[in-house]
Design a protein that fits this description.
The chain contains 16 helices and ten strands. The protein has about 425 residues and is of the alpha+beta class. The chain has two domains: about 210 residues, no CATH class; about 120 residues, no CATH class. The two termini are about 20 Å apart. The model has no long low-confidence stretch (mean pLDDT about 85).
């Protein structure tokens, strides 16, 4: 009966059937943005988190405590890193000194986050090799006064590979006064992680130079450690083991402890977006209920005949429930694949929309001002705050939940008209025939 309700044999026009087709398309269309938001936001969060872990905080960072025995020089830093590499559960360890300074060129000056790393960091660190894109020059720190800078910093100071910049840091004089220290650096290369908010001020220099120009008292000196999986519970076990063994000499922090504010912000934003999209699906599902109400009214004669032949109210109600479920299922069958297709081509779609928007706004600007000399290009996703290329992520578990939730919602909104159909009285209907 459910099949005949959806596909009647007669060619008679049915407003209820057209409403069911409309409800089916509404469900499918409402799922497209939901799946897109889910996949794109998940890919965005994973991409940003991967860069924060691999390029900034490492899986865990071991800071030297006042109880550390020895000088904080390059020899001891390398020795500690080698010791950590031999510990079980550690795949890599590397020393780093991080401080702040003022970078200047003929084009101007700006603050910079100075990162003193090993000379072979860009070749040996797997995350650096994977996530950093070399824009110009080479990511080599073999020369003493070489530097690798971020793309945003290079644009701010109008620098290119081979040019010279001055780095101004502070040092403590013999009398305790803070004095400026000026160092000339040659730009070996320009790199980008694809996320400007993270690397906008980064300036990489050799570790030995960092120890000589950055004051120990106001710098972060640590050894970053990497494990097979930053998201595994094994990381917690490794950190606990480190704290038991080296707790008096190091202060150890996991990546999620160092980036807790950003990570919680990403999660809460994703939940809010999904909540808004779910409301759209809820509104679309109401169309199924209204279509079934119309269908019950159109099929009162058939319902009366079936009941007079022995059909029970529960069987009649079940047929209409299955009709609503089939309508929601059909919407899922087109909505989920269409949403995944759009998510897979999101970067291309966004680029085309951005081109169209800029053409339209530029035309309006030209009509109002008579020229486009001061027109500024519009970025729908500002690279200063978002990834320039959003990786595709398909959260299979969440898609299964969305599919099940849509089907359950279709059943719920079908319940009232289905029960109404089951309560139809055949005698009252047949009298009017």
């Amino acid at each position: 009966m459910s099949f005949r309700l959806l596909f009647p044999r007669t060619g008679k026009k049915s407003n209820a059937r057209r409403s069911l087709i409309g409800a089916f398309f509404c469900i499918g269309l409402s799922l497209v943005p939901l799946v897109m938001v889910l996949s794109v936001s998940d890919g965005m969060i994973k991409g940003i988190t991967e860069r924060m872990i691999g390029l900034s905080s490492s899986h865990a960072s071991c800071f030297f405590s006042p109880m550390f025995e020895g000088e904080l020089d390059s020899e001891n830093l390398y020795a500690v890193a080698e010791k950590f590499k031999n510990e079980p559960g550690i795949t890599n360890a590397y020393p780093e000194v991080r401080g702040i300074g003022l970078a200047s060129s003929l084009a101007g000056r700006t603050g910079a986050t100075i990162r003193a790393v090993t000379k072979n960091a860009f070749e040996e660190n797997a995350s650096y090799k994977k996530l950093f894109k070399i824009i110009e020059g080479s990511a080599s720190l073999q020369e003493k006064n070489s530097a690798v800078i971020g793309e945003k910093l290079a644009k701010t100071l109008n620098l290119s590979a081979g040019k010279t910049l001055r780095l101004i840091t502070s040092r403590e004089g013999a009398d305790g006064k803070i004095l400026p220290k000026i160092t000339s650096l040659k730009v070996a290369g320009i790199v980008s992680s694809g996320y400007q908010e993270l690397d906008a001020l980064w300036l990489f220099i050799p570790l030995e130079m960092g120890l000589s120009i950055l004051p120990v008292s106001s710098s972060e000196i640590f050894v970053g450690i990497e494990t097979p999986d930053a998201y595994s519970i094994e990381l917690d076990k490794t950190v606990s083991r480190f704290e038991e063994k080296f707790g008096d000499q190091f202060e150890i922090y996991k990546w999620n402890e160092m980036n807790v504010a950003e990570y919680e912000n990403f999660a809460s934003t994703q939940i809010m977006l999904l909540f808004i999209m779910l409301l759209i699906v809820l509104v679309a599902s109401v169309n199924i209920s209204s279509a079934l109400v119309m269908l019950v009214m159109e099929r009162r004669k058939e319902i009366a005949i079936l009941k007079s032949l022995g059909s029970s109210p529960s069987e009649i109600a079940l047929s209409f429930l299955l009709t609503g479920l089939a309508t929601g299922g059909a919407g899922v069958l087109i909505g989920i694949p269409a949403g995944l297709f759009c998510a897979a081509n999101f970067n291309w779609i966004l680029t085309k929309i951005e081109i169209f928007v800029n053409y339209f706004v530029e035309f309006i600007y030209l009509a109002v001002n008579g020229n486009v000399e001061n027109f500024t290009h519009i970025n729908l996703l500002d690279p200063a705050f978002y990834l320039q290329e959003i990786p595709l992520s398909i959260p299979l578990g969440q898609l299964i939940i969305i599919t099940a939730g849509t089907l359950i919602l279709s059943l719920l909104v079908s319940a009232l008209p289905a029960l109404k159909a089951g309560k139809e009285k055949p005698i009252d209907v047949l009298r009017k025939i």
